[in-house]
Amino acid sequence: HSALTQPPSASGSPGQSVTISCTGTSSDVGGYNYVSWYQQNPGKAPKLMIYEVSKRPSGVPDRFSGSKSGNTASLTVSGLQAEDEADYYCNSYTGRNYVFGTGTKVTVL
Amino acid sequence: QVGLVQSGAEVKDPGASVKVSCKASGYTFTEYYLHWVRQAPGQGLEWMGWINPSSGGTSYAQNFEGRVTMTRDMSISTAYMELNRLRSDDTAVYYCARVYWVTNAFDIWGQGTMVTVSS
């Protein structure tokens, strides 16, 4: 499986919304409802933000939401805050293995 | 407190092997798969494979087949990742991460282990 495709960068002003796409194939994103999203700050381990396409772990703000249509999943951050500036990665189950997205750097203007 | 603690940084010569450990605490070791993910400097996350701590079963990404071995020691709740025939492009931070088979999400991560391959 090749890496899932994400835009290299996205940006928005505080209070605005930003949406990041994650495009795969019918063998990964499109074939399973096991898409998850991770936030990574510089020098830190990734942190789980969304699992099973749209579920939020305890402690993750409801400003973060996920969805999927066909072979493309999306992460939306509403009401952007300065602390949301980070790298974001999607991940999909592929039937036995897993694949990450290429990553998106989110900048809060 | 649930956590994964990894072994310290390593510096290796090209062609050598490295073995990184990942000690689990605060949960039942055999109830979650352990995965390994690496990140080269300035690059994205790359999934390497998983081990089922209960059975010892493994699955590896095609890119690492034949060069990586994942094992575990249930008596000390520790998983290991050994990578052989190291090359300079194996220089990266290696993470272990816990995955619950129901959600297929990486919910707990180790702190990462920097492996540098250089002559």
Number of helices of chain B: 0
DSSP E strands of chain A, number? 9
* Helicity level of chain B: under 10%
Name the shape of chain A in a single word: globular
**Share of β-strand residues of chain A:** 35-45%
N→C terminal distance of chain A: 34 Å
Largest sheet of chain A at a glance?
6 strands, mixed
- Helix proportion range of chain A: under 10%
Q: Assign an overall shape of chain B.
A: globular
Distance between the termini of chain B: 40 Å
- Structure classification of chain A: mainly beta
Average of pLDDT of chain A: 97
What is the structural class of chain B? mainly beta
**How are helices and strands ordered from N to C of chain A?**
EEEEEEEEE
Mean pLDDT of chain B: 97
Strand content of chain B: over 45%
Largest interface: A-B, 25 and 21 residues
Radius of gyration of chain A: 13 Å
Can you tell me the residue ranges of chain B where pLDDT is under 50 for at least 5 consecutive residues?
none
Record the SSE blueprint.
The complex is a heterodimer of chains A (109) and B (119).
Chain A: E1 9-12, E2 18-23, E3 35-40, E4 47-50, E5 64-69, E6 72-77, E7 86-93, E8 98-100, E9 104-108
Parallel strand pairs in A: 1-9
Antiparallel strand pairs in A: 2-6, 3-4, 3-7, 5-6, 7-8, 7-9
Chain B: E1 3-6, E2 10-12, E3 18-25, E4 33-39, E5 45-51, E6 58-60, E7 68-73, E8 78-83, E9 92-100, E10 105-109, E11 113-117
Parallel strand pairs in B: 2-11
Antiparallel strand pairs in B: 1-3, 3-8, 4-5, 4-9, 5-6, 7-8, 9-10, 9-11
Walk me through the structure.
The complex is a heterodimer of chains A (109) and B (119). Chain A is mostly beta strands. Chain A has no helices and nine strands. Chain A has strands at 9-12, 18-23, 35-40, 47-50, 64-69, 72-77, 86-93, 98-100, 104-108. In chain A, strands 1, 3, 4, 7, 8 and 9 form a six-stranded mixed beta sheet that branches. In chain A, strands 2-6-5 form a three-stranded antiparallel beta sheet, with no helix packed on it. Chain A is globular and about 40 Å long. Chain B is mainly beta. Chain B contains no helices and eleven strands. Chain B has strands at residues 3-6, 10-12, 18-25, 33-39, 45-51, 58-60, 68-73, 78-83, 92-100, 105-109, 113-117. In chain B, the strands form two sheets. In chain B, strands 2, 4, 5, 6, 9, 10 and 11 form a seven-stranded mixed beta sheet that branches. In chain B, strands 1-3-8-7 form a four-stranded antiparallel beta sheet, with no helix packed on it. In chain B, 40% of the residues are buried. The model of chain B has no long low-confidence stretch (mean pLDDT 97). The chains are: A mainly beta (109), B mainly beta (119). Chain A binds chain B through residues 3, 32, 34, 36, 38, 40, 45-48, 51-52, 55, 57, 89, 91, 93, 96-103, and chain B through 35, 37, 44-47, 49-50, 59, 61, 95, 97, 103-107, 109-112.
